[in-house]
Amino acid sequence: MPIPQFFRITRRSVRSAAWTVLAFACAGAANVALVPTHRPRSYEPDRPAMARQELRYLRNAIERFKADTGQFPPPTEGVAALHDKPAGAKVWRGPYAWHASRFDPWGHAYVYRLVSGNGSTTFELFSAGPDGKADTGDDVH
């Protein structure tokens, strides 16, 4: 019984398979050589950008808190009121800041203040920056 054509091994099929294997081997070697396997030692996270992103999230959470409770979080509790129910709160549908931290990227608590003026109350929220002192030049708003 003759062997079917697609089972026959010819020089051409062997050469084609060899070139295919060689091409994949070169591609794999290039991939291993060109892709870094670790971060450079000089990597420093962009902490101000991280703080600005988290501040946007926290500001939205404070607005949701006010929409539910009718008032801003008490300044004595600050950002913690977004995570845990404040004492005396009747309506609280939190946690409002599920993914946000209570601390900025430098490990300091976010600064939260209520500001009154022109018959209305609003809030101020910012990071004290690397020095941890509020109202200095390195604060992140």
What is the CATH top level name of one domain?
Alpha Beta
Strand order of the largest sheet: 1-2
How much helical structure, as a percent, in the residues?
25-40%
Q: What average pLDDT do the residues reach?
A: 82
N-C termini distance = 84 Å
Number of strands: 2
Unreliable segments (pLDDT under 50, ≥5 consecutive)?
Answer: none
Outline? elongated
Task: Give the SSE order as H and E letters.
Answer: HHHEE
- Give the strand content: 5-15%
Major sheet details: 2 strands, antiparallel
Count of separate DSSP helical elements: 3
Computed over alpha carbons, the radius of gyration is 30 Å
The CATH architecture category of one domain equals 2-Layer Sandwich
CATH superfamily of one domain: Glycoprotein, Type 4 Pilin
Task: Give an overview in words.
The chain is α+β, with helices and mostly antiparallel strands. 36% of the residues lie in helices and 10% in strands. It contains 3 helices and 2 strands, in the order αααββ. A two-stranded antiparallel sheet has the order 1-2. Strand 1 and strand 2 (120-126) form a beta hairpin.
Write the topology of this structure.
Blueprint: H1 11-34, H2 47-69, H3 80-83, E1 111-117, E2 120-126
Antiparallel strand pairs: 1-2
Question: Brief description of this entry?
Answer:
The protein has 141 residues and is α+β, with helices and mostly antiparallel strands. Helices cover 36% and strands 10% of the residues. It has 3 helices and 2 strands.
